[in-house]
Amino acid sequence: MGQDSPVELILIGYWRSENSPEWPDPHDFVDSSWDETERHLTVNLLRAGTIARTYRGWSYCRFCAAQNGDNEFTDGTYLWPGGLAHYVESHGVRLPEAFVRHAIGTIDRLESAPVDRDWWKSQA
What we know:
The protein has 4 helices and 4 strands; from the N terminus they run E-H-E-E-E-H-H-H. It has helices spanning 36-48, 84-91, 97-112, 118-121, and strands at residues 10-11, 50-54, 71-74, 78-81. A hairpin with a 3-residue loop joins strand 3 (71-74) and strand 4 (78-81). The termini are far apart.
């Protein structure tokens, strides 16, 4: 039996700090005019991810210094730090359009997917 190739996830949501000056600055992503529905849907996807990794030590918000998570989430396509939803929800950080479209598309597909109720009923 052959091994599956590892999935390559797209990293998003790591921010510049004194120790990591190579990352983007979250202040450059603030967009107070961002459509509230799009922002809400994006937050929903970020919060619904599967925990991929957990670290020893917390990340802190670059805006308010709140303790902001110690894990990474994934949806099978993207990989992001657990605190990314906080940036979007609390500070109006708008993520790149490719991610926003992905988030909205994923939620739309799940909301409109047909549901097979028969399989579960057959377990009774």
